[in-house]
Amino acid sequence: MPYVEILAPRASEPNKRKAADAVTHGIVRGFAVAASTVTIYFMPIDSGAYAHAGEFGLPQSGARVFVKVHAYRRTAEQRRAVAEAVTPALAACFGTSAHNVAIYFIDRERDEVAHEGHLASDEATETSTAP
């Protein structure tokens, strides 16, 4: 953890690689975690699965990109740093404007997350490089 879900139109593999690098490093810097804790899921949205403002299909001008960041609770300053770091790379990856990139931070308390069948809250408190 953090886990990042990116719902957006299909993008080329080189663009996704650049975005993955930028998102990973933005989260590492903003949340003070190790890169090994960051997982990103690219979830492509086809034209037949997208509508905005009542218009069906992907717009030529660039679709909206919806990003969910699941992580332990962070400060507003940390979330702001991540948003500022990753938004330009996501806009470039999907050929849209930064205005069309929405990032939702879905904060979790440690007792709401389990790894290997154990609640994170049951584990010893970890350093700043913890997942």
Explained architecture:
The model is unreliable at 126-131 (pLDDT under 50). A 4-stranded mixed β-sheet has the order 2-1-5-6, with helices on one face. Strands 3-4 form a two-stranded antiparallel ribbon. It has a two-stranded antiparallel ribbon with strand order 7-8. It has helices at residues 13-31, 76-93, and strands at residues 3-8, 39-44, 51-52, 55-56, 65-72, 101-108, 114-115, 118-119. The protein is elongated, with a radius of gyration of 16 Å. It is 28% helix and 27% strand.
CATH top level is Alpha Beta
Strand arrangement within the widest β-sheet reads: 2-1-5-6
**Total number of helical segments?**
2
CATH topology, by name, is: Macrophage Migration Inhibitory Factor
What overall form do the CA principal axes indicate? elongated
* H-E order: EHEEEEHEEE
CATH superfamily: Macrophage Migration Inhibitory Factor
Summary, kept brief:
With 131 residues, the chain is α/β, with parallel strands linked by helices.
Topology:
Blueprint: E1 3-8, H1 13-31, E2 39-44, E3 51-52, E4 55-56, E5 65-72, H2 76-93, E6 101-108, E7 114-115, E8 118-119
Parallel strand pairs: 1-2, 5-6
Antiparallel strand pairs: 1-5, 3-4, 7-8
Helix pairs in contact: 1-2
Which features does this protein show?
131 residues; alpha/beta; Macrophage Migration Inhibitory Factor; 2 helices
